[in-house]
């Protein structure tokens, strides 16, 4: 298994993004995540996008982007997780946890002080992954901050001294 950075518009990233959108639509009964995203948002040092491969087969994905829009509830130093997804056949192998750790390390190295994310009540496995990785519930932020099913979480990337 190899995890490597790719552009958000890489063909494998586009294919996995389409699958995660289908997953969101299935779980929430809508058109998926309408958050506007561009490849530039995931370009270092402003972010990074990763895909886990088994040989040439893409199995999982996730990215982080710099996000500091106070009007939407973000804080200076925030890095936001986006598009965490593992193909159903590859779940249970720890891929999401490995991608999450790599994203946190990269965001920390880029000078980000807090990792934030938004997920939903119909994604219990995501809520469990993040809670077991040290994320805690915080005041809602971002595009979905007014949605009842939305849950926002954060984790400090700064070592406490």
Any key phrases for this structure?
161 residues; alpha+beta; 7-stranded mixed β-sheet; 3 helices; 29% strand
Q: How many helices in DSSP terms?
A: 3
Q: What is the 3D form?
A: globular
Strand % is 25-35%
Oligomer: single chain
Can you give a write-up of this model?
- The chain is α+β, with helices and mostly antiparallel strands.
- It has three helices and seven strands.
- The chain has helices spanning about 10-30, 95-110, 125-130, and strands spanning about 1-5, 45-55, 55-65, 80-85, 115-120, 135, 150-155.
- A seven-stranded mixed β-sheet has the order 1-2-3-4-5-7-6, with helices on both faces.
- The longest helix is centred in the first third of the chain and has 18 residues, at about 10-30.
- It is globular, with a radius of gyration of 15 Å.
- The mean pLDDT is about 95.
